[in-house]
Each structure stands twice: as C-alpha cells, then as structure tokens.
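Technical note accompanying the year-one report. For the benefit of new consortium partners, we illustrate the data format agreed upon in the data management plan: each record pairs a sequence with a structure-token string. No post-processing was applied to the example shown here.
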Amino acid sequence: MTEISKSATPGPKPGPGESVSLPPSGERGRTSIAVGVVEKIAGMAARDVEGVHSLGSGARGFGAVRERVPGNKPSVSRGVKAEVGEKQAALDIDLVVEYGMPIAALASAVRANVISSVERMTGLQVVEVNIAVNDVHLPDEPDEETPTESRVQ
C-alpha cells in the first residue's frame, strides 16, 4: 500500500487516529478523448443499424473511387465528422441507405444508436447528431465497399 505524506495532502493536517480525505478519483486527473476515437465509435454504431448500406457519399463520390484500389479498406470513420470538447461531442454523419428503407425512421434509429454508444463508451454528452442521407443503394448496383480489379499494376 502506498503511503501518502501528510505534507503532500492538501487541507488541514489530520490528527492522531484521523484519516486523510482525498477528492474522488475523477477529480485527480484529466482524461482526453481524441476526435478519431469518437468518430470510430459513431461509425461502428451507425453501421450496426439495419438498412444502412454504408457511410460516406456513396459509390459516385471521390472517396469511394480512392477506396476501391486493392489493398485499401474502407475506414471505419468514413462519413463521420466529430467535434469533441471536454464534456460534450457533436457529430455529422453521411449515410447511404438501402432502397426501400423508411429514411426518417432509419435516421432516428441511427441517431439513437450513435448517441447511446458514444455516451456509454466515452462519458461525453452528445449534444447533436446531424444525419445527411447522400445516396440510396439499389439492389442491382455493385457494392462500393468491395474492391474491384485494378486496371493498372
């Protein structure tokens, strides 16, 4: 057991038989959470909702072309932007939804899952989750996250 020097303890010095009172453990240091951590958690939570095809701008966007190069895997946080403070976070999420899904209900389910996951895992209060549906994935479209054969070697 570590012994605490009485001179290092703030406040009045305890008398014989008295115990030293320390602040709660949460007040004895600082925890910072990187933006990328919050973005990854939010990305995973959004993808867990049935009806979300992918995150980002869809197959027609520049990022999708870059990620089709063999060996490049889609980033977990693709399509997610976060602002993170000491106690709060705000998120913007770009979705591609499956054709036939009710978009308003899907966005609500994604928002709820993202808020729940980020708050549970980080302890941050999520003040807003803005969702932009940028594309609808049709059943006969190729899957944008499946790498295609490169034309060059």
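Partners are asked to follow this layout when depositing records. Confidence is low (pLDDT under 50) at residues 1-9, 61-70.
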